Amino acid sequence: MRLLVALVFTCLTLLGPSALGAATIPKSQSQVQLSFAPVVKATAPAVVNVYSKTLTTQDTQLGLFNDPFFRQFFGDRGNFSRPRRQVENSLGSGVIVDASGLIVTNNHVIRGGTDIRVVLADKREFEAKVLLADERSDLAVLKIDVGEEELAALQFGDSDNLEVGDLVLAIGNPFGVGQTVTSGIVSALARTQVGISDYQFFIQTDAAINPGNSGGALVNMAGELVGINTAIFSRSGGSIGIGFSIPSNMVKTVVQSAESGTKIQRPWSGADLQDVTADIAESLGFARPEGALVAGLHPESPLRTAGLKQGDVILALDGHPIENAKEFNYRVATSKIGQESIIEYQRGGKAHEASVKLVAAPETTDRSETLMEGNSPLQGMVVANLSPAVAEELGVPSSLSGVVALDIKNGPAKRFFRKGDILLEVNGVSIASVDDLQKAASIDEGYWEIEINRGGRKLQMTLR
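^ thats the sequence. predicted structure below, dont judge the formating
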């Protein structure tokens, strides 16, 4: 066998380089050396550590009143607790995207933080100010004061140019051990079933990402920022080669809002969409499931103005194929207000095209933002009349109407309700406005029957 292999190699050698192809024998060490060092040297100084401290208050029940037997008599509204303050620490990473000290990280790294500090790659430490925190995209933009100094910063790459198989590096501070670089490839694109944020369109990579990497950089071989490392799929808490990053094109829109000093205002489609399943595809005569089915349109939707109707299937936006509803929402969110976009769609088996002018979500009614007070389970809830603009901010369907929870402050409401809950009915009274809610909440009948819409599901609760 060895003699046969040696004979074949000798024959190929005699035939010359044309037979061996590109697999010629290396003649120097430089020809066999593969290193990411040049990319790391250019990018690592722009990746920082982010530390956040959050002061929380928890009620500790005193003595017998912590016993369920006594609680059934005194209830949860009895004032028999002692507040206890607790400091929670959060560790993550961040990326300098402007030499003046502008840093992008994940919102969940700094959420609720009262003391946020940034440590540069050279170990210098700075107090950070939050310029913008966007819960819907799970991104936040920080600013540190470095005077006239210009820091190393990463340039944005175009995440739409990524392809499965491209080499990438993940840079961050896993487990607080210090800056760490891992390598891998782009394993998949447009992951929409991750459940991390409202805009699910993630880059999947097998570059090792661990706790502490959140907010760190995903860079390509040109040293450009193509993603912000955000989450991992893991059963153990450590990396198993399935990590997710927010595409740089989404990151760029958030950073631009922070730089302009305005709140994030994204284009609004005014459409309720659903994925095209295998059954729906078959009924429509599609060869495979693809596109986003228009289930409903707000009266002021720009898609309705452009001629789209309920039942149409959106197949592409500005040349980008649309595989599902989340992908369409991402494409709209990373576009600009006032932009003319081309939508390709199918109706009745025929292909159509329409030009749509992207607009901001309108305020169709006065918000009447109100903090609920008084002796009711709603106490501590900040409510507002629901309009497309409010719905867009909270990530709820724009077709809904009524009163929505903008925020939950301290109070009884914190136990029962969540941000984004829509109040439908209180003690048999339908709630169409903040005034309706205040009137219904002012009548204490000794019990409260409340119906809400939470994430598309109607929930009923009886509170005493």
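Confidence is low (pLDDT under 50) at residues 1-22, 67-78.
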